């Protein structure tokens, strides 16, 4: 929780949070966050009382004066751009520079997505006031009016390269088929931008998603295994090696454990594929939008 969110969430006017709470929509993780901040219950109540604001705010349509757009952009830069890109081009977060967004087809659903986040994803909820959320909604919609990124490649040839020369199925799953060393790519086109996909293929270590830490372990017996960390606690670690095999070790069995942050088991395809082939592959990946 950032200082900004904290102020907005519990300051003079945190209509968004309170209204969510009043409407019984307050997500459990919001409450957990409250707990983890160790706020006394009294302060929570104080917040609730202080912030009982005009419920009309939440149903109001986006505010679109130049001042509101500027305020929305300001919030976006601080709170959203590091995941969604300064121009909504995407990155760790979805591309927002699209005319239609899967989880936010209209302004009301976008309001909810920003306030509550998307469950089981890296998209967090935000404690903004209702007005601030509408300002961000208005700004995000301006991103959607930009021209879409051009894709020159041929997706059909890209699909062939994916299954053939690229050897991607060894590590990735699409539509339930393939290996599990890398992330499932079934909806990668909806989650990531073309720019990000290009970087992922050419410089995989530049775009390692959450939860894919490469580790190298050496057992006391001298066996060396590199793989993706699946789980780790104080006493044990579980990894999937690069052939897809699962391993579990007690840390007491290990002579070495190297967490290779910023490294990727995925090879760079620069040089392995021609630039035309890379574009075809990107066109194919961009076409993968999951089952909708
Ligand atoms: C920690 C990274 C992160 C931050 C910060 C973040 N998002 Fe997201 N956001 C994501 C991810 C990842 C997704 C895609 C989730 C999915 O579809 O599984 C997403 C999805 C969305 C969507 C839905 C996109 C679609 O195609 O339907 C919208 C709208 C959105 N975010 C807006 C925002 C706004 C506005 C902010 C700032 C207030 C923000 N996000 C902050 C990671 C982030
Ligand atoms: C040896 C296993 C391996 C092979 C082969 C491989 N990948 Fe990956 N890939 C990974 C791993 C592990 C990650 C996650 C860590 C990272 O991003 O570096 C990843 C990440 C990605 C990502 C980013 C996913 C995200 O959500 O951010 C894309 C896109 C991708 N791979 C596409 C491909 C394509 C296309 C091919 C074939 C041309 C390929 N990969 C071949 C293991 C592999």
Question: What's the helix and strand layout?
Answer:
Layout: H1 3-10, H2 15-22, H3 28-36, H4 41-50, H5 56-59, H6 66-79, H7 81-84, H8 107-116, H9 130-144, H10 155-163, E1 173-174, E2 177-178, H11 188-191, H12 194-202, E3 214-219, E4 224-232, E5 236-241, E6 246-250, E7 254-259, H13 275-287
Antiparallel strand pairs: 1-2, 3-4, 3-7, 4-5, 5-6
Helix pairs in contact: 6-9, 8-9, 10-13, 12-13
Bound molecules: heme C (2 copies).
One heme C binds at residues 79-80, 83-84, 92-94, 96, 101-104, 110, 113-114, 118, 121-124, 126, 136, 140, 191.
Provide an overview of this structure.
This protein is of the alpha+beta class and 292 residues long. The protein has three domains: 142 residues, Orthogonal Bundle (Cytochrome Bc1 Complex, Chain D, domain 2); 73 residues, Cytochrome c-like domain (Cytochrome Bc1 Complex, Chain D, domain 2), CATH 1.10.760.10; 46 residues, SH3 type barrels (Roll). Helix content is 40%, strand content 12%. A five-stranded antiparallel sheet has the order 6-5-4-3-7, with no helix packed on it. A two-stranded antiparallel sheet has the order 1-2. A hairpin with a 3-residue loop joins strand 4 and strand 5. Helix 6 crosses helix 9, helix 10 packs across helix 13 and helix 12 crosses helix 13. The chain is globular, with a radius of gyration of 22 Å. The two termini are 32 Å apart. The N terminus is likely disordered. The structure holds heme C (2 copies). The site of one heme C (HEC) has 28 residues, from helix 12 and helix 13.
């Amino acid at each position: 929780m950032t200082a900004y969110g904290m102020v907005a969430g519990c300051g003079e006017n945190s209509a968004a949070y309170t209204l969510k709470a009043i409407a019984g929509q307050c997500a459990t993780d919001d409450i957990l966050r409250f707990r983890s901040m160790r706020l006394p219950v009294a302060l929570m109540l104080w917040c609730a009382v202080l912030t009982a604001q005009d419920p009309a705010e939440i149903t109001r349509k986006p505010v679109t004066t130049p001042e509101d757009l500027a305020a929305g952009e300001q919030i976006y830069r601080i709170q959203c751009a590091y995941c969604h890109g300064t121009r909504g081009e995407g990155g760790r977060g979805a591309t927002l520079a699209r005319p239609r967004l899967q989880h936010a087809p209209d302004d009301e659903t976008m309001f909810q997505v920003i306030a509550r986040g998307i469950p089981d994803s890296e998209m967090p909820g935000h404690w903004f006031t209702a007005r601030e959320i509408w300002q961000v909604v208005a700004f995000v919609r301006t991103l959607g009016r930009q021209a879409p990124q051009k894709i020159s490649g041929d997706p059909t040839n890209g699909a062939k390269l994916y299954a053939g020369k690229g050897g991607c199925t060894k590590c990735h799953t699409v539509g339930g088929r393939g290996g599990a060393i890398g992330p499932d790519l079934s909806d990668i086109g909806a989650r990531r931008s073309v720019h990000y996909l290009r970087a992922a293929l050419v410089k995989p270590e530049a775009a390692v998603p959450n939860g894919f830490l490469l580790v190298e372990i050496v057992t006391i017996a001298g066996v060396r295994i590199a793989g993706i960390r699946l789980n780790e606690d104080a006493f044990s670690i579980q990894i999937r090696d690069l052939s897809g095999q699962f391993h579990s070790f007690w840390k007491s069995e290990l002579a070495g454990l190297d967490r290779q942050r910023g490294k990727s088991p995925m090879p760079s395809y620069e040089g392995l594929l021609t630039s035309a082939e890379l574009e075809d592959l990107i066109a194919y990946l961009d076409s993968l939008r999951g089952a909708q």
